[in-house]
Amino acid sequence: RLDDGTTMLLDSLKGDFEEAGILVKKTGESTLSYSAENLPQQAQLAYNTIEVPKGAEFDLILSDGTRVWLNADSKLKYPVTFGNDKREVELEGEGYFKVTKDERKPFRVVVKKQTVEVLGTEFNIKCYSDETALVTTLVNGKVKFDDGINPSVILKPEEQLIFEKENSQSIVRKVNVNHYISWKDNRLSFQGETLDMIMKTLSRWYNVEVVFED
């Protein structure tokens, strides 16, 4: 969805287009790239939104070079080009972020009232509306999680923060990150998951409805 409300079907998109003075290219079957070359000096603040339906995946390269992989049934709202003071995007669903380092402008992912802030790192955020927890998994670098209520939490590589939405409580644990990021490489990996959670993942991945008799 472009800044003026126009919608574009990315599956059938052919060629490049311009948005708020930025050249946008479709590279490959499922990558959208916002060219970091020849950025206008006074670019207008415009926002685009990518909505990925069930049974699909997509990734994009933002104007600062940050790359984002979006899992099925996910949505990302982002500026066509970032302002001078901050880099901030809004996520619903699940996304893997490989952030370009810029100490002058921290990168923030906003999920409802929670914020994950980084300088340059790789991490995964899972925040589906039909699940009870927001899960942040850090691959490398450092991230700060702020829920707006409790003191902020700093994560180290291979740590995972689970934020329970109902009681606003967080726990941090050491994990094998491969189980939580393999989806971006077209593999699903589970360890210690309930059948209910596994089926939720499969229903998004394959766009099917799963019904439990008991």
Report on the structure:
The chain has 2 helices and 16 strands. It is mainly beta and 214 residues long.
Give the averaged pLDDT, no decimals: 91
* Fraction of residues in H or I helices: under 10%
- Give the overall form: globular
Provide the gyration radius in Å.
17 Å
User: What is the N-to-C succession of helices and strands?
Assistant: EEEEEEEEEEEEEEEEHH
Low-confidence sequence ranges = none
Termini separation comes to 40 Å
Strand tally is 16
Strand content: 35-45%
* Estimated structural class: mainly beta
Helix run count? 2
Largest sheet: 16 strands, mixed
Key attributes of the depicted protein:
mainly beta
Write the layout of secondary structure elements.
Blueprint: E1 17-19, E2 22-27, E3 31-34, E4 47-52, E5 58-61, E6 67-70, E7 74-79, E8 87-98, E9 107-111, E10 114-118, E11 122-127, E12 133-140, E13 143-146, E14 153-155, E15 159-164, E16 169-174, H1 178-181, H2 195-206
Parallel strand pairs: 3-5, 8-9
Antiparallel strand pairs: 1-2, 2-3, 4-7, 5-6, 6-8, 7-8, 8-11, 9-10, 10-13, 11-12, 12-15, 13-14, 15-16
